[in-house]
Amino acid sequence: MSDTDKVYPTGLTEAEAQEIHRHLIQGTQIFGMIAAFAHLLSYIYSPWLK
């Protein structure tokens, strides 16, 4: 039952693993942009380093 298309131990194919990885990286980038924007807004409205 050895399938060379699977990436073990997850059982995903190479294409599926790359798709999940791409979405994970995209989600992390979007979260980072939102966090940076939120920090910028909080700095503008209450400058804590001035």
Automatic annotation (TrEMBL):
Q: List each copy of the Antenna complex alpha/beta subunit domain by range.
A: 15-49
Provide the topology term for how it sits in the membrane: Single-pass type II membrane protein
Described function: Antenna complexes are light-harvesting systems, which transfer the excitation energy to the reaction centers.
Give residues annotated as binding a bacteriochlorophyll: 21, 39
Q: List keywords of the entry alphabetically.
A: Antenna complex, Bacteriochlorophyll, Cell membrane, Chlorophyll, Chromophore, Light-harvesting polypeptide, Magnesium, Membrane, Metal-binding, Transmembrane, Transmembrane helix
Q: Which residues cross the membrane?
A: 30-48
Task: List the Gene Ontology MF annotations in alphabetical order.
Answer: bacteriochlorophyll binding; metal ion binding
Coiled-coil-forming residues are none
Record organism: Rhodoferax fermentans
The entry sums up its family as follows: Belongs to the antenna complex beta subunit family.
- A GO term from the CC aspect: plasma membrane
- Its protein name is Light-harvesting protein
- Presence of keyword Membrane: yes
The record, for Pfam families, names:
LHC
Q: Which GO terms describe its biological process?
A: photosynthesis, light reaction
Q: Kindly list the places in or outside the cell where this protein is found, as annotated in its UniProt entry.
A: Cell inner membrane
